[in-house]
Amino acid sequence: MKVVIVGGVAGGASAAARILRLDEYAQIIMIERSGYVSYANCGLPYYVGGVIKEQEELTLQTPESFWDRFRIDVRVRQEVTAINPAEKTVTVRTLDSGKIYTETYDKLLLAPGAKPTVPALSGVSSERVFTLRTVEDTLRIKHFVEDQKPKTAVLAGGGFIGLEMAENLVEMGVSVTIVQRPKQLLAPLDTDMASFVHVEMRRHGVALRLGETVTGFRQDGDSVLTLLEESEPLRSDMVLLAIGVTPDTHLAKEAGLELGIRGSIAVNERMETSVPDIYAVGDAVEVTHFVTGQKALILLAGPANKQGRIAADNICGGNSHFTGSQGSSVLKLFGLTAASTGINEKAAQAAGIAYDKVVLFPASHAAYYPGARSMAMKVLYEKESLRLLGAQIVGGEGVDKRIDVLATAIRAKMKALELTELDLSYAPPYSSAKDPVNMAGFMIEDLESGKVRQFHWNDVEDLPCDGSATLLDVRTEGEYRRGHLNGFRNIPLDDLREHLDELERDKPIYVNCQTGLRSYLACRLLTQYGFSCAHLSGGYSFYQVVTQEQQTARSAYPCGMEKL
């Protein structure tokens, strides 16, 4: 069996090695347009920043090591320019010499990945405007940074690569400005959770120009001007385009393969395309979202590697299936870790799913053990079925551990209430006896059993401030004096029982505290004394971060932020 693989990074390289493990006699030719195979896209910003010291550490395999270990014929700096499914051939051009030849195949695997989205704007060809997708891109940026020693940089885009590059450039002493049309960074996060990322970026000197549209670039001596639609141009020493990637599917389209959303390659669960004996994997293909069941593009290394393995199984006569991706991801940003899995609120609304959510601020490990840090944690679940839909966590240590537990729970199709039953490891340096994941389950259990009701940060400005409801802040007097929600009366939780006769039983009570714990306790107390009560999810600190970030925290709002 002769297998030709187009593309030699995550999906292609994974498939190649798997095929040889299943069929020692298979002839495999892997054709890669760049000069490198089996490299770590996610590590590229860290090489630019010097965290990864040696260029060789970026590549897991080389053409030589592929041949020595697997006898796989890897051809770099060669490009497949056409596919002829009827004759089962591909046309190949050698980039260095221009030589064109034809290669036959029994099975063809397409793993072309995605290419950086480069808008049709003036000035994008400037030598000071960069994209980052391949090792060659990385080396170009690395050489520029070392030779030119830029002091300023503009990054167009606030996704994973853009933010990782921002961090690395800042650590090198470069002043960074991020410009993008969306009004938040990191699309997998909800706006409220992204606020913590914004705060961290600004804390490290990164200027955020969100909601701005780039219209072009213009070189001006040793600088480049980033032209904006409604603002003055930004002058910098370099620009990085990181506004996203586009599936590289022109070969599939020209060969008559069925395409999916946004021009991606349509495949079934076996990673087969619409043409017999042609498979496709990785960033170029559409997948089924595990949570919504809808078609999606999820451009991550984990799914690409799994798809490569599945395609290899089926090429070798097996019957493996890719059951979908839920987009689990994690990102380091200075002292912060941001992670998500499943869907966010925007995606749930688009899919027409009736959902609810809990927000909590658990400690990374036992609070009495030194070094504990709180994390912002948000869990979504479907109201009717109680199935888990997604989770987002932003914080320090322990974020990756909890997001992986929740990702596993979603994959296992656990109900939200089953989070309470997870038997997770505990020792003071690592967790608490009731792990944050357990705590999320307890909170959902209380909501669904009717033990507590909640309202959210975006409900605050609509609270009745005309005296028809009681607005109650149960933090300490000192906390209240440092800042509070306008219209909220302060009765500390520990004193609440002694002041019950001051509260009107025929009025609903809306309770607020710092992070949502004391307000929950207050509501349980008040409910048992016959009051109708709801508490602020995430508390005052969550409201404060989100509203300040969105510049909506104005005392002019009826129940907005009042700063003392």
UniProtKB/TrEMBL annotation:
SUPFAM superfamilies: FAD/NAD(P)-binding domain, FAD/NAD-linked reductases, dimerisation (C-terminal) domain, Rhodanese/Cell cycle control phosphatase
Claim: Transferase is one of the keywords in the record: no
Database matches in InterPro entries: FAD-bd_OxRdtase, FAD/NAD-bd_sf, FAD/NAD-binding_dom, FAD/NAD-linked_Rdtase_dimer_sf, Pyr_nucl-diS_OxRdtase_dimer, Rhodanese-like_dom, Rhodanese-like_dom_sf
KW Flavoprotein (keyword) present: yes
Cofactor(s) listed in the protein's UniProt record: FAD
Domain Rhodanese: residue ranges: 465-551
Keywords: FAD, Flavoprotein, Oxidoreductase, Redox-active center
Family classification: Belongs to the class-III pyridine nucleotide-disulfide oxidoreductase family.
Name the record gives this protein: FAD-dependent oxidoreductase
